[in-house]
Amino acid sequence: MLRVATPVAVLLVAAGALSGCNTPSEDSPPAAKVTHTVTYELFHSGGPGLKIVGAYSDERGASVSFDTPQSTWTKQVDVVYPDVTTVVLGGNAAPDGDAVIGTQIPQLQCILRVDGSIVAQQHSLSPRCEAKLTGTVTTPKPGSPAPSASR
């Protein structure tokens, strides 16, 4: 019995090696880390008495809430891929304190840039911009203004 079991075990090991089993190799290099500069922008058009309430992905990929009485909000963070694979920005306009909102329905615009290029943009009551990150840094596309030139 022992003589039969040994050749079967050798065949199973050889078959696994030839079939390309996905066993991690100690010689495999770790995934390359790439730093992306992410710029978030939110603007509201609704007149005075409104604030922007929103959330964005921070440098660790965690959601961070914020609110500001300004009609414009901008934030820039550096994130490391593959530690962070997706970044998100969203928000809406809300009454600031006891302010009475007029008849105009406030609209917001979100703009999400990765490495200087606009990768997501939306205009609505409650916009949400999202981008999947990759392992490469790209240069800004022609026609994508620099983050500081967007105002």
Keywords:
single chain; 1 helix; mainly beta; four-stranded antiparallel β-sheet; 151 residues; disordered C terminus; 8 strands
Short description:
By secondary structure, the chain is mainly beta. It has one helix and eight strands.
Structural topology:
Blueprint: H1 2-19, E1 34-45, E2 50-57, E3 63-68, E4 72-81, E5 86-95, E6 107-114, E7 117-124, E8 128-132
Antiparallel strand pairs: 1-4, 1-6, 2-3, 2-5, 5-8, 6-7
Taking Cα atoms only, what radius of gyration do you get, to the nearest Å?
Answer: 25 Å
* Assembly state: single chain
Query: Average pLDDT across residues?
Result: 79
Residue runs with pLDDT of under 50 for 5 or more positions: 4-24, 146-151
Query: How far from one another are the termini?
Result: 81 Å
* Shape annotation: elongated
Q: Which sheet architecture does the biggest sheet show?
A: 4 strands, antiparallel
Structural class, by secondary structure, is mainly beta
Strand order of the largest sheet: 4-1-6-7
Care to count the β-strands? 8
Compressed to H and E, one letter per element, the order equals HEEEEEEEE
Helix content: 10-25%
Give the strand content: 35-45%
- Number of helices, where a helix is a run of at least 4 consecutive DSSP H or I residues: 1
